[in-house]
Batch of 2 targets.
Target 1
Amino acid sequence: MKGRIPESFINDLLARVDIVDVVTPRVDLKRAGREWRGLSPFTNEKTPSFYVSPAKQMYFDFSSGQNGNAIGFLMAYERLDFVEAVEELASQLGLEVPREGGRGGPSRKALEGPLEALSAAQRHFEAQLRRSQPAIDYLKQRGVDGGTAQAFGIGFAPDAWDSLAKQFRDPAPALEAGLLIAREDDPKRGCYDRFRNRLMFPIRDTRGRVIAFGGRTMGDDQAKYLNSPETELFHKGRQLYGLYEVRQAEPHPEQLFVVEGYMDVVGLARHGIRTAVATLGTATTADHLHLLFRTTRRVVFCFDGDAAGGRAAWKALEQALPTLGPGREVRFMFLPQGHDPDTLVAEGGPEAWEHALAEAQPLSRFLLDSLAADCDLTTPDGRAQLVSLAAPYVTRIEDSATRSAIVDALVPRSRLSRQDIELALRGGGRPRAEPAPQAGAPKRQKPVGRALQLLLEQPELAQGVGDLEELAQSQQPGIDLLVAVLDHFIEHPDSTAAGLIRGWPDAEQAHWLERLAQPQAMAPADPASELAEILARLRDRGRRLRVQTLLEAARHRDLSAGETAELRALTSARAQDQPRPAGGA
């Protein structure tokens, strides 16, 4: 169906599923107190730092820095998009995913025809390859054996105008999939094949479905490579050739190589390097980086060592800057002149590839070396120019640790102090300082932060906490957030930390809640008493502030009867409570 998945269905789905049941078939977990613990499925760690909390319905991976609910885990582990993860969870519970009305993409049923046409085309091209000796000879000449060709589904489109067209009784789905082209000059003659006399490389999505093709000419066509046109199924800026095959061979690769052509991917696989993917005739995009980092922590871009390779690498660097963060690494590998990945491994074997990889440059070095090429670093002006040139790039990096590392690398090159470089960067873009949290986001784990932590651990503690208005009067940083969380858990007694965070309307506050929800090294002995004590201190602070306000008002005017009664009641309440003093309240 068209439209988005209703929010109510997603919330109900998360309430009905147990994240432990989702994770345990995929990760070996052992009970650790109130939680479950195991090795990270996203890194190669040797000691357990992966936790699953049944109470919070969240997972926390301290090795990779990831955390989230059951949907987020499926997205990260199975490499699904959000809709696919929701559908997977729903299918486990035997539920049909509803859709709201409104504008949206084509329904799954509407895409079944093109998908079936693409699948039929794949079978046709593979059958035609077995009958074409010239195409087989070409693959053998390029070192591609039968097993590799089969693994990548390589086929052949004969040099004919209707070899594929004749396979379809109804050409409409094949036209929609970009396999056929309508004859505009003579519609009565129908359609003709888009791909002719070409080796055919199927392009698969993350679920293994053929969504497009790339064809390499076997003749003297001016277009050496021809891709399927953009369709509802295929967007070349969002897909990577070979990614599905990589995941089949190695679900969690330590690194991915990004090369430029189909034959580079296939040639590397033939020599045992099964972690290469290729862009589809387009520069690297932000969507490509998103796909890559969903699969691995290190991306190595491989380019020719000429000027064109340098330009392509720079474009990839610009796209990569905003994606950098903890556990993510980008390197640039430039091949010897006259070689592409396919020819390098064909001539020198995997050893030649490993040698080139050892020379790969980290992103920071490639960035600063490229900028320094236009500066005379022997002069103060040239060194200042380097910092000025670097500023717009460094300030695009959102992760503070990565930005800091590049600033450190700038210090010896520019011979400027770190403080001077920081000032220059602020002038060249947005300040490096972390954005101030919005109102209601606690800066540190003081009383409000600790209270939130206890509530996220045990939401049932919110029941019976008493008057929330008194808490709001304490004016403690973050108190509005605490009151709102208490109110949510009171109104929704079955809610979990995962459900609360997922639906929280303020993204900055949700981020703080997510951090506070992380497992603690030591559980409190009596969380209910600890929370009650914190709330008592906060209420007392609110009363003190209100008393001060009323006393200040009494200095300038007569208090009303209601204000006098309120002052008397507040003074009496404070005398009875006498909470233990604590710093920071």
Target 2
Amino acid sequence: MTAKPVLLIGDGAATLTDLIDVARDRRRVAFAPEVAERMAPSRDWIEGIIGGMEAGKDTPPIYSINTGFGSLAGRQAFEDPADAAELSRRLILADAAGVGRNVDEEVVRATIFIRIVSLTRGYSGVQFAIVQGLIDMLNKDVFPAVPEYGSLGASGDLIPLAHIAIVLTAPPNIDGKPVDDDPLDSGEAFIDGRIVSGVEAMAHAGIPRIPISAKDGLALLNGTSFSAAQAALALWDAQVLLDTATITAVMSIEALRGFGDAFIAELHDARGQKGQIAIASRIRQLLSDSTFVTGDRDSNPDRQPPQDAYSLRCVPQVFGPVKDTLDFVGGIIETEINAATDNPLIIPELPSSRSLKAVSGGNFHAEYLAFAADFLSIVVTEIGNITERRLFRLDDGTLNRGLPDMLVASEKVGLDCGFMLPQYLAAALVSDCKTLAHPDSVDSIPTSANQEDHVSMANNAGRHARTIVSNIQQVVAIELLMATQALELREIEREGTGQTMGTASRAAVALVRGTPASDGRPNGHVTKDAVLYPRIRAVAELVTSGAVIRAADAALSAPNGVEAETDAETTTEPRTGSDTGAAK
């Protein structure tokens, strides 16, 4: 794949696609030309305050510059200007207190990217060298070790962001000269899979650690970037998952000889819900040349009554609101990627009648992201909920319209378990999601001596959303594997009748059968019990990568394929609220 050109940060709004490019594909970044000029006024104001302190000027308390933090802010104002830089350093040391497993590199890279975008808005008063250091970390693949637990989602993601800042920054200069930089106080980072000190990691990358100065510490720590990164990655994967689950649902509908009446356009137009109409249109496109499904706008079904179980006929009514919710979540997340979220914000353009340009507020409060991640968790769990019901139906010989029990044509009934246990696995995964989908945003535990008396828990919401998406990717992969088996059995059963699966489903079946299991063996039709986990692993990768979507769409757009409906959303690209997604 040809490398994309360097992404200019500050040259227009950053998109979810930009974030994915940087986080997963290591796209390189640089400042847009106007960024330095945009950042200068707020930094100049900070340096003017420090200069006044150095000159002995009486300086009022200014939060995070010459005061403590949280409930300590009103205790006293520091008179020594050197304390402003020391305050930043000690804040980073004190806040690097996370526990748990270290998060994936893509989460760290996404976090750094969002923090850069936020700081370049020009409201943070941070020195330019700090943001350049973050860019260098991305471009030279420095991977700080960031534990998953610690953030409350207000006052920002202090603890995880501190684990990044401690790698980037060095102690403040004294009298303009560097001081000893103890590796034990430099955090941790990964080099070739092993954890080293921040000092070693930065030296290995050839990046100087930046001596911290006034306001830098809180500007690096006090924001929603970590929670936003988790939610953004979950959203991207959820969009790909929904598109893939629509295809696997169609495969099951075909395998179970479903009815097309449930997807007639006029039926969905009568309700008027945007997402439902789009999903039904996509299903009609995917089914348009299948002869396993009976009944459509122009012809009566050949069986009566033409009603399937809800897990088949209500896919548009379930996946439609999932789509609409993901679109809504996308709008929130793309806005947050571009937001200035630290505190206080330095706003130099305030009137001259107000000398204090540092404005204390609450942009660090991540309630938007907490809600977004919670909504995402709920709707993705529903993808799994309805999908698992189709798996159960495929396995059950009393419900699957003539397919063999457990989808295996065994020589002796009962000798082979077939696909009995993948449905168990799906049930376990969906049950886990039902617990994880309990909203984190409704929880709050006061901190900082009750100064921070309401928090969002957005990081917990984002972590749970990522886990839920991962779980349901496995559930949809199981449907892909089982529906492939079922469609092959159905074609054997209907041989000679002229009935066949549709073009899109045939492409998905060919993709599955052409992809080796993770142990290297063929992923062929199951005629007797075989080890299934390598097969599930292989098809799970097809789900997460978007390969199923690409295969189906390529088949439909081929010269002998099915023309897309004019009202169908046929793109393989996940869509956000501002329609900026792009699949890899």
